[in-house]
Structure prediction request, 966 residues.
Amino acid sequence: MTIFYVLLVFVIIAALVAVETKNLLSAVICIGAVGFGASLLFLFLRAPDIAITQIVVEVLGLVILIRATISRDKTFITGDREFFAVVVSVVIVFVILLAGVHVFQTLPDFGKPAFAVAAESDRLPAPASQKYIKDGLKDTGAANLVASVILDYRAYDTLGEATVLFTSIIGATVIMRRKSRKLLEEPEI
Amino acid sequence: MKGMTVIVKTISSWIKVLIFLFGIYIIFFGHLTPGGGFSGGVILASSYVLLMLAFGREFAQENLSLGVASKLDCVGALLFIAVALCGLLYGAAGFFLNFIYQKLEIGQEFNLVSAGTIPLSNIAIGLKVGASLFLIVLVLSMFRPEISAPEKE
Amino acid sequence: MPYALCFLLFMIGVYCAVVKKNMVKIVIGILIMEYAVNMFLIMLGYRAGGVAPVIGRNMNMPEFVNSSVDPLPQALVLTAIVISLGSLALIISICIRTYEKYGTFDITKIRRLKG
Amino acid sequence: MIKPLPYFVAIPLVAAFLLPIFGKKGKNAATVLANIATLALVVLAVVCIADGTPGVYKIGRWTIPFGINLVLDGLSSLMLLVISVVSAAAMFFSILYMEQYTAKSKYLSLFMLMVAGMNGVVLSGDIFNLFVFLEIASISSYALVGFGTEHEELEASFKYMVLGSIASAFVLFGVGLVYGNTGSLNMAYISEAIGKSGMNMGLSFAMALFVAGFGLKAALVPFHAWLPDAHPSAPAPISAMLSGVLIKALGVYAIARVLFNVFGVTISVGWLLVVLGILSMLTGAFLALRQWDFKRLLAYSSISQIGYVVLGLGLGGLILAQGGKPAWASLAILGGLFHLANHAVYKSLLFLTSGSVEMAAGTRQLKEMGGLAEKLPVTRATCTIASASIAGIPPFSGFWSKLVLVIASIQAGFYWVAAVIVFVSLLTLLMYLKVQRYAFLGELPEKMEQIKEHRGPMLVAMVVLACLCILMGLLLLDPLQSSVLDPAVKALTEGVSYSENVKSLASLM
Prediction:
């Protein structure tokens, strides 16, 4: 359990450094550290699928992010921020944080998944995850239950997910195109 | 000379095959072991990105051009939705029905050919994700800031 | 406790996205928010001493049922990761184009629109 | 009978995946295909409305809550109809309008993806699925706002995308909290769990996150900063889609569904919606009055008009929660939803006319225009109809929905709300008189002597929408009201019994 907390604190510190550093390139590297820390966390939380995906996505994401920052004239942030605005927003963030911490006491304790609590409770309807674990192999024939959820039980979500990727690729090619407007000739109707 | 040094080029030309095969493995065994279409697709894309970094953009583009990549992207997405629509052959309520497993009953559990439409969807997604992520890196790297000189058109 | 730390990470992201004046920093803030949400979802499904939701050939099924972590949040996070990668690609391309047009990443200097 | 619900998503998706393959050469074929797809959606929506019965579609034949289900009730079918009609008109308009831009087939593909996303949001019965389709619609709209890739467009797109991504992260966090507290993602099951175990702080916080997230997408007033930049920067048909339907499908619809059907309306939630609505109405109207950019004025006016819709819904919810007469609540919600449909039609028409004016005159600044009435007769006529409609002049459509809202608030005893509605209506009249005065009347500037109206599809789209503007009042007559508006109102006034309805429907299929 200690490893878990160490990783979590590492991720938070890396995120803080990424937020506060003046050099954009080191901010991007720090966000890479956050991603890899998150990937290790996923591995620790018994989510190997997510860990693999996170790590490969992180590599590509870093390539994309570095592409944005490198070979720019100035990668250093210049100019001061208004002190007052920063203080006000820190206070707001802190207040929301304090309010939010109480919220998490309503969740089941860490280490006890929500579906297990719901399955035991008589006030909550039967959760879907219980069936996925019990009957997933029989229902879909896939030994990897995550695959059976994303590609069979909830395949419609995955269609949406593939579409999001498709959308953003089309969007990016549209944004990056050389010429956006052309002279309009008089159309013949 | 485009790209990086000879050492990097030699090593990456060996490694790229391994990465590519690993991506295909991840896609094909996505329903049995951790992994699947998305992570496999990203790995496929990164083998091309490696080529691009080591040998320069032109070399990678000779292997897989922009137009082909964007067509593969569309084809992958179409394949996925085609798998979904095939379920409709088994009645109007069959959108996304895992028809191969539930109706045709092909495949033994824990085998490569099992789980019905799941491997098919994984392949379609792998194709789509690989093509589209390669495309995005290519598009971002092809971009050069505009020159103020008037264009000849 | 882990949930609260996750929420702290989320609020760091919100702070970065709202306060920072540099476009890349704002993108980084959004990324941090997305990481925090992903971790939060995965934590919800974690079972102390559990096993990954992948069935092996010789696994004892009743034992597996009682010790597997929740596969549903993992499926959600897989979707969320890919969505965040897609929006990262789009927003970075917008950033690059904006840099080309204005010559800066500073949003206080990018002010054609007002009112 | 099994409803053809997946086609609402599958048709635009297949079209969107096919369109980029056409590329530059097959541009005309792509345009035809896209238009066929939008028209097919109109036909499907009309069939669903005419059929009139609610339905549930279980994807992959998994019983809920194991799989995802699509739910068609009155509210969804009203939204589907509005989305498909406006998108068909905007698509028809873009046949010619988008010729001034490059990469038309990609534009068409993004357009279809946006339609697919909205249809998916409106039909979804699963809260995570709603989030996924929300992202499809949002991401395509970010790209479409920046479609021109000039200074302003990129800036607006960046701003929109940052706020939109924050909103999405809020929504996803809310989904996580709800899942942790109830163990379900299906909206019917979440609603049942909340009904049984009651609200707690986690769920209230999730509700606040949902209101903030969807409120950002709907551009309600504290969250409206992106809209006046994003909507004018997009190409005109996209502005029409964004103002006409996107903020409603992603914002208002999602808020209404989550608050009314999943969490259940309480008095405080009702007041929250009323206050947000009135704030949006007043702020939007005052800010719109000082604009000189035609499209920017329209964008601010959208904020004000979306306030009417939220006000109507909030008033209805408030009356329901206070235990007032259900008939009053129904009337208030009816006013809100009717205004939603009306606003979709006339605001998209106004954006299309602004596109037509911009294309002909080459400017959007009202001060640089003048005397366009003789040069652009059809545009002028449709713009006048839409302006009269939005300002609430009888017998045009806007008048009827505002009348219903006023009657509902007076009946329920909220006299000051009625006064605000009338006051904002006067402000709206003022701002559209300004448009008429500066754009269409007055002196024609010398450099605009040569301009002329573009003929063909653009005019057809505008005239069709203008006819709808005049005829929308008929929706209050009986056979139409009872088949289009009443089921939508019923879907909301039923509140949390949504959960039982969905379950019983699902067991039938």
